[in-house]
Write a structure and sequence with these properties.
about 110 residues, mainly beta, six-stranded antiparallel β-sheet, 1 helix
Length: about 110
Amino acid sequence: DNDNNNIEIVKIQLAAPAGDDKTKYPMLIYNHDRSSKTFIHPEEDDTKNNIINGYDCIQSWIQQTGLGGALGITGGIKAYFYAHRTTQKHGSDILSIDITQLASPQNW
């Protein structure tokens, strides 16, 4: 079953740290028309079970290649990712982020 129509580009924003603050704050994620908005929260490191820590991967991508927002980097940085939406019959949809590559920067 090919459901590529559920693939979209999302923007993920990382808040600017205050000074030497190493706190992992939730990252805002939303699609172009903002019909889908949520947060990515930090998770416990689970390397002992070979589980990829998605928060850390996304944070690293944004810190290495992210762009400044309307306020420049003082307001935080952002990057664009490909995401796949899985629609659930019951409950909330699931949004899976492709952490292997970035999408091209968008004008929104």
